[in-house]
């Protein structure tokens, strides 16, 4: 394994992706796909009246068949640190992915980022229509909390309540949704956001959901407060590195490899660290954040078991899509 505890070894240095990390990432993606497909079946659950076919088709279109599944991977691997595996962890991870997928469907709408391409195929409002895309997002958002509140996710009602509260805080007004609102405001601002304002926006819009993915593992595993705090610092640093890497890809990436339109940040006057610092300084900050993430894992005291999460930090910085 590449993880040595001596820094992230990224930047200009050549790097071979760790095989165990790739295997675990692929396994998490497969488990998440299977869980989502089951949850989004045609048969109504107790308390539901019916599942309209076109809406369900749109929800499955948005949620299935694409993406790296990084957020569920982080949840599953964080839970694994405490010996928690199986249906409980998979359902919790799927709930996070439902929130992420709903946010993409809504972000792509003409009233938001107005994108036509996502994961190499038409966005939901292009494949269906705007109203259906909105409803598909609404359905996934609501269903995520249904999944977490269900005793099938965890026998302990207190654990379920903690999961629901944590995801609501990360994805709502003071987290992802609030970050999207700040992002839209920044596009129309008469002057660029400061670095502090940009970092806050990005921590809300992107970082909060990545952080909560790690927190889910700590909640499911009953982690002590110091260990949970160290994992949270890892999640914060990883989320910030992910956003910078995403901005770099938008500036330099190939549309075919990205599976979505490139160069849109500059077109829409998006608040990014690239705009404030330039590409070279942004890369330096990304690499420092990866280092900080790996150092935080060392502070958990969990030793080599955190190696795959260290690889995840490197992955977000070096990914090509």
What characteristics describe this protein?
1% strand, single chain, Isoprenoid_synthase_dom_sf, 15 helices, Farnesyl Diphosphate Synthase, Polyprenyl_synt, 321 residues, disordered N terminus, mainly alpha
Text of the CATH class: Mainly Alpha
Number of beta-strand segments: 2
- Largest sheet: spatial strand order: 1-2
Helix content: 55-70%
The sequence of SSEs as H and E is HHHHEEHHHHHHHHHHH
Number of domains: 1
User: How far apart are the termini?
Assistant: 23 Å
Basic shape = globular
Overall mean confidence score, pLDDT? 90
Rg (CA only):
19 Å
The name of the CATH architecture is Orthogonal Bundle
Number of helices: 15
Query: Unreliable runs, pLDDT <50, ≥5 residues?
Result: 1-16
How would a crystallographer describe the biggest sheet? 2 strands, antiparallel
User: What's the name of the CATH homologous superfamily?
Assistant: Farnesyl Diphosphate Synthase
As a percent range, the share of strand residues is: under 5%
Based on secondary structure, the structural category is mainly alpha
At CATH level 3, the topology is Farnesyl Diphosphate Synthase
Give the helices and strands, then pairings.
Blueprint: H1 19-39, H2 53-63, H3 70-80, H4 87-107, E1 117-118, E2 121-122, H5 124-127, H6 130-149, H7 157-171, H8 176-187, H9 195-221, H10 225-252, H11 255-258, H12 264-267, H13 273-277, H14 279-298, H15 307-318
Antiparallel strand pairs: 1-2
GO molecular function: metal ion binding; prenyltransferase activity
InterPro entries: Isoprenoid_synthase_dom_sf, Polyprenyl_synt, Polyprenyl_synt_CS, Prenyl_diphosphate_synthase
Organism: Methylosinus sporium
